[in-house]
Amino acid sequence: RAKKQGGNQYSFQSFVGLTNDRERMEMANDLSRALERNELCLYYQPQYCVEEGRIIGAEALIRWQHPERGLVSPVVFIPLAEEMGLITAIGEWVLRTACTQNRKWQMAGLPPIKIAVNLSPRQLQQDSFVHIISTILLETKLDPCYLDLEITENIDMFETDLVLEKLREIKAHGVHLSLDDFGVGYSSLSYLNQFPIDKVKIDRSFIQKIRSGHAQAPIVSAIIAMSKNMQVRVLAEGVESEEQLRFLMEQQCDEVQGFLYSKPLPVDQLEKLLVEKLTGLRKD
Ligand code: C2E
Ligand code: MG
Ligand code: MG
Ligand code: MG
């Protein structure tokens, strides 16, 4: 993710995959039309409850089907959308699409799951953000307890009070809050301490290092233990191997998400999982 470096400068990380200025400008131009041209879509990655071994949620992950380039990663175009001021419109589209989809599944009688939506700091800075959320919930008739908002810690520190107020209001509606990419930033602990968080998502860089005897495993167990002490749920991101899963089970991690179970899926494939009324942990 692009990190803000004081002022409004962004590091070159945000231009990953874009080789030169011309390419970047072309991409920016194309992105400004992507919404109206219906080139954006959501994939859904299942989230599993470890204890019950069943799907309890899905994270909405945006994709851009570029007419010439094919599928573009959000790692490339989300930072661009943030810099271009397009992220609020795109973010609102993501929220509305994800909530509409989840309500559709529930109306079809499928087992209810939570839909997790990633938020950009810019969205939380919008004055109208709380209003946008409540409008979307009203429009889609989705019960707020089935919406889970994922925030990261790159919120401007000067605005934490304002953001905190908005998050409290949103929570008062019954929406859930998750802290994404936990452990990689500078201030994970202070965010956890300040914000009304329901769930911690351990960043996949820690999970990937779980191998017998590897020094990262104690960090994962410590995050799990801390979450339990603070009475927040804890999810491990990027679970790819049986060995990682075994370790996470031993440590009584609440939820898991990763390629071991499933990659992010197009709508119809996630729906199939729900229709199969999937029970038992499963590898895809
Ligand atoms: P994230 O929110 O941390 O999402 C998890 C990322 O890890 C996803 O990448 C997912 O495909 C990937 N992943 C899941 N399981 C595994 C695994 O087992 N192994 C590996 N190697 N990767 C795994 P994706 O879809 O490319 O998204 C990247 C990031 O882009 C997201 O990270 C999120 O920060 C951002 N993003 C995606 N969709 C949206 C959106 O709608 N709005 C905003 N603001 N950001 C988004
Ligand atoms: Mg996320
Ligand atoms: Mg993230
Ligand atoms: Mg993450």
Automatic annotation (TrEMBL):
Organism phylogeny: Bacteria, Bacillati, Bacillota, Bacilli, Bacillales
Name the UniProt record assigns to this protein: Bifunctional diguanylate cyclase/phosphodiesterase
UniProt keywords, alphabetically: Membrane, Transmembrane, Transmembrane helix
Full protein segment contained here: 250 to 533 of 533
GO MF annotations, alphabetized: cyclic-guanylate-specific phosphodiesterase activity
Coiled coil: none
Organism: Brevibacillus nitrificans
Residue stretches making up the EAL domain: 24-278
Domain of life the protein comes from: Bacteria
